[in-house]
User: What shape does this take?
Amino acid sequence: MTALASRGRSTPADTRRRLVVIGNGMAGARAVEEILARGGAVQHRITMFGDEPYGNYNRIMLSHVLSGEEDAGGIFLNSLDWYRENGITLHAGVRVEKIDRFAKLVFSDDGRATPYNVLIIATGSRSSMPAVEGLYTPGGRLLPGVFAFRTIDDTQGMVSYAQQDHQRRAVVIGGGLLGLEAARGLQSHGVGVDVVHSGGHLMNAQMGPDGGAVLRRSVEALGIRVHTSSRTTAILGGDKVRGVQLRDQPDIDCDLVVVAAGIRPNVEVAVTSGLPVERAIVVDDHMRVPDEDEIYAVGECVQHRGEVYGLVAPLWEQAAVLADHVTGADPSSVYLGSRTATKLKVAGVDVASMGLQAPERDTDEHVVFSEPSRGVFKSIVIRDSKIVGATLLGDSRKVAYLTQAFDRGLPLPEERVSLLFDLGGPGEEAGVAELDGDAQVCNCNGVSKRAITDTVRGGCTTLSGVMDVTRAGKGCGSCKLLVRQVVEWAADGAVDEDPAAAYYVPGVPLEKAALMSAIRDQGLRSVSAVFAALAPAGAEDAKSKMGLASLLKMMWAGEYIDERDARFVNDRVHANIQRDGTFSVVPQMKGGVTSPEQLRRIADVADKYNIPMVKLTGGQRIDLLGVPKEDLPKVWADLGMPSGYAYGKSFRTVKTCVGQEFCRFGTGDSTKLGIEIESRFQGIESPAKLKLAVSGCPRNCAESLVKDVGVVAVDGGRWEIYIGGAAGAHIRKGDLLATVDDPGTVTLLAGRFMQYYREHANWLERTYSFVPRVGIEHLRAVIVDDAEGIAAGLDEAMQRSVDSYTDPWAERNDPFTPGQFRTSLPLEVLPRVPVR
Amino acid sequence: MSAGLSGGGLHVLGPVDQIPVGEGRAYGVAGEQIAVFRLRDGSLRAVSAVCPHKGGPIADGTIDRDVVMCPLHQHAFDLETGCSTTGAGPLRSYPVFADGSQNVVVRLP
Ligand SMILES: Cc1cc2nc3c(=O)[nH]c(=O)nc-3n(C[C@H](O)[C@H](O)[C@H](O)COP(=O)(O)OP(=O)(O)OC[C@H]3O[C@@H](n4cnc5c(N)ncnc54)[C@H](O)[C@@H]3O)c2cc1C
Ligand code: HEM
Ligand code: SF4
Ligand code: FES
Assistant: This one.
């Protein structure tokens, strides 16, 4: 693919020098940005070649893409528009094969020969593939299920492979930065992960064995299995991955292998073109290739004074020096190498390391603190009263200060322990004040303290605003705390506490409590009325509509003015939209109890409408999937059952176990109570979904401990109520709210808690976040002991919501809006969900 | 009314009332799939009906005065230009208006 940017400028009159860049990654694009910043476009007509079919993106963020926290589209640093706007011709998806240094031509695999006057090589590196048996198919491709971890394509390949075919286990080869990030990311797809590391401890490039042991504990606490001193000898499988073989250890079964065992600079082009290559492409202090006046190299593909770097921070410095020389802006500029102080977040753990890992001479001092249970480890090596090395794990508070002391050889306090902790002495504030303007705050994006303070002085005084403008804190995220401190310091306390973060919905600048009282005071009963009265310039905001609709319904119950456009499509058509634009239909099946008659009707409907998949849900109900929108009313009519609300931000289901009636262990009638609870609270809307369960004894077959509200019958006819549990993307055991004597009280307290949650939780805040945020003691005081005297009010409010319930599926006979169930998927359709 | 050879020109899609205020409906027009939205101020917007991200049904999206948000993964698109404000590819946008008898009229290139 060749994405072409403005050719307009290359008219015959264009006498500018031709600047060609090979490699469109972080270093290549940064070098071009630096050149443009020095007015380089006046002298140069710029052409870039990139092997990957995209604009430049933030490779560091691939870990977030893998974990699903970030969409691949969200990590681009330079969009295709950027190239166009800057008059850069980008050949994306085109690989350069050879340089003719004499004719000054670059040959690429699309058959093109491109002349240059100045050439920049920024080819980066790739995952190094260890020599193990079975890694490749006979055809020479990676065995299906084996992945490198370097590019967007690698990452997306991994994600889709991990999600298909019920992949259960993955092995990551390599226990360094990349390996641990890959392991953590894969976990979020529900895959069990083993890390196989040939070194004696994790991240041995950055830290010594003691730190490695603490890190191992933290990583294992995340549920990742770690095998150190383990060499992978073969990939097992043949047609696809089925396991890995280790030397002197049992095989590990797995469906997916990620190779993250180091990187290898991409030097092939340089080698075949006769440029000096040792471990990487050799450059001098001007980032020039020796004896080649017009060829520069930058990034991970270069070797400077014997060093090859594998992190981004050095390449920011390199790119600036390179640009000084290419444009002639500063002929005296030199790159003298980077001190590798790294500060990262690896698998959620803060890691900083610089210089020596351990003392080397008898006279070196070594200050160590280790608290494995909290995952904290700090080690500092001091020589002649200067820091020559440090490793910090799990606590990044002193990192900025230590990095600076390390970089500049600052004199150290007599009391060494204050290197590790703030002991009531000069606190963080002073620490930030002491930081030099040039000190790098965000290593990922190369943002200095000065860049942040300048932005603040320029009038941007919110954390998120500064992060947007400078990109600080938008890489691995380990520096966010420091960025916040610098912003606070620079704004001299006048930080606008990031107001937007506290808004209930983004489009109305009010926190929930203030929003609710404004709504009540002004009698705002519809979403459009709220926008008109409370939003800046009365502007609607699509992202805010659903949250407001839910809040208003909760507050006004029967008096709410229901504007259908404020609803998300699920709530407009009372079904859950699927990836192919069809819907799923889940009829109510209270407490998971059904009857032959219901089952027969469901079966008939499934036949009649050719339902492609019928599935039991995790909530003990039956899901009819793949129903086109226009069939929904007919399906509901034929089912003759009410909606199960499997689509809304609302009360969903109550799972129950068989309980006392049949189970020989049962001590309480869990089924009956579950059905009562579901009948009472069916369909009430809430800030996020509510899933409940009732179990008949502490064996807990309905999994009550991991529900938003979970009830367990215990001996003596009593009932325990747990709140704030979860077992989805998040796992949390609920907190015990109360143990009560009768089912009636269970229903009362459950309802009171849900109402309190509805009134106080943030939009989309599940109970597993809400309960710990507010605190179980506080909740117990309010809900059980009525410490604030609001219990009666909560009960009343809930009763109003209960009374205003109507079955949404009744709209089948009388559509609420014209074309409510008309298809939005005209004609030929879209990605098809495979039908089993 | 309609149609040059390629389907270009004006196409009448029926009464405006078919589209509830603040919502969108999908139409097949000369082989193209078009989502028409009726904003709360009464004006109309028309963009292509299939999300460039993963084929989501744009007409089922949520709108405000400026953008439509796809229901599947919440990419947002400017209703005037079709350009994504969240980094997805663009939708096509079409001129659209209500004629004297309150019918939706869309112009295809
Ligand atoms: C998952 C992951 C996480 C990371 N996390 C961190 C971190 O937290 N902190 C940190 O400091 N660093 C991190 N890194 C390292 C960081 O991403 C690299 O240091 C940085 O990307 C190097 O930039 P570069 O431009 O030299 O190489 P690249 O970004 O790899 O760019 C080189 C580009 O050149 C292209 N190319 C190669 N050969 C050719 C050719 N012959 N013709 C055309 N194009 C070619 C390649 O396709 C590639 O797009 C991480 C890396 C990965 C993979
Ligand atoms: C006599 C003892 C038991 C028998 C015969 C039994 C039988 C079953 C059966 C048949 C299923 C359904 C499997 C399916 O849906 O395919 C099931 C599910 C389950 N059982 Fe048991 N079980 C027993 C005891 C227990 C105990 C003591 C626990 C808890 C400690 C338990 C926890 C579960 C859970 C969590 C499920 C899954 C529920 C769901 O589908 O959501 N079981 N059991
Ligand atoms: S929770 Fe207890 S009562 Fe309910 S089915 Fe399981 S063992 Fe029986
Ligand atoms: S399909 Fe539209 S946002 Fe994904």
In short: Chain A touches chain B at residues 71, 73-74, 76, 79, 507, 528, 539-543, 545-546, 563-566, 568-570, 572, 577, 579-581, 817-820, 822-827, 830-831 (CB under 8 Å). Chain A has five domains: 17-125+265-327, 146-261, 428-502, 503-567, 650-820. The pocket of iron/sulfur cluster (ligand 3) is lined by residues A 657-659, 663, 665-666, 670, 695-697, 699-701 (CB under 6 Å). Chain A is about 30% helix and 20% strand.
